[in-house]
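Hey L., structure's done. Input below.
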Amino acid sequence: MSALSTLRHTFVYIMLFVALSWPVQAYALSIGEERLIGQKILYSVRKDLRILDDPDINQYINRLGSQVLQVVGPQYFDYRFFVVQSDQFNAFAAPAGLVFFYSGLIEAMRKEDELVSVLAHEIGHVTSRHLAQRMDKGTKVSAASLLLGLAGLALGVPGLSQGLFTGSLAAGQTINLRYSREDEEQADRLSFGWMQEMQRNPESMQDMLRTMRRITRYRMGNVPQYLLTHPNPEARLDYVESLLELHSQQSSAWTKTDNFDFLRFRYRVLVQTTDLDRLRQYCAITLAQDKDADTQRMARFGLALIDAQNRRFDQALEQLALVQGQYPDRNILRVDQAVILQMAGRFNEAKAILDASVHRDPTDMYGLFKLAQVEAASGNTTRAEVLLQQVARAMPEYPQVFFELGQIEANRGASGKGMFYLGKYYLYQGQEDLAVQNLRRARRDTSVPKHMQEEAEQILAELEHINKET
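Output:
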């Protein structure tokens, strides 16, 4: 064994001993307080950032999170995972199990294990309650101040309220909330162990940290060190490389991940968040030069999405047909085909494909939602409503499903029910004033069913409580 390897092994053993010897932390936040702050932060994020509220993207990232949580074990919080439009290379965990990934980070990834490594790292911060530990036990810090501090960590995100950022500096919370080196090492150590349990390749942690180091070096001149949510990637990289050396004999147990779902998810994100001409150029280069078969094939999928966005539907369908030929058993590609047909106004063809696809996989909320839209556009509003209610039960914070339900009720002349659904749409879009306005009207409308009036009252009370407490 080399002297460097011996030194790294010794370092890891020392750090593990120190970690086990750390005293139990005193938390400034109770579980209930953390949940309340999480609710407020989510409302604020919806207001100031653009969350990709797409059932396809949402379902993938949350399924992946659930896979990690299965090995993590019981938790205090119900975790939720979101993709936010931003070219920043970042992800952050907020209180109460809210985890946000920037589209710029996803763009830099090349395989699913890299996404899992970051996802597990953020879960490590939440399950260790690092934010609660960062609080000063002797000082009463409001949820609003904590919110400002978290907002300050999201430096450089287009659309982030300048008032929030300025306030976070004035409140002095940004420095207090910075993760320590020990926090980062604990999150990396937990992530490493969970990936091993999942038989995922933890070398992906090393790959992501190398990318982070390169990007941090490039951007360091513009971003103060104390504002980085994950400081010092060099030290983290050394620590993870030490763990990899320590467990190198277990590398044969790591399974090769099928990256189809990840690559499809990645292109679905990028086509909504990046310049299409630049993305087309990237896809063309990948198609011509990449040696990995899946990466090369799915670059054509990216080209199909770009053509569809540019309303070149025939070319999009031709590109997608080539991808389907490479993956004949992937039902989700049939849904993608139907969506392009729907965009082209070919509703009968889209409906036939979506009916068959949903029958094969009734858990696919993306397919269900698109089928509901096709049914509504074809005048079959009764079935559309049934399908939309299924989606609403599975994804109760997806704004567009309530917009579609509101449209159906408004077209029927049921204005009260339409206002109720419109209120929920605005609520999950982050437009609180409009949400309150419509929910109050629905609550007072005697034509609105009692259970809807009660739900409107409950939402209004919850909003009042959150605003009062924070």
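Residues 3-26, 136-141, 151-175, 221-229 have pLDDT under 50 and may be disordered. The longest strand covers residues 80-84.

-- N.
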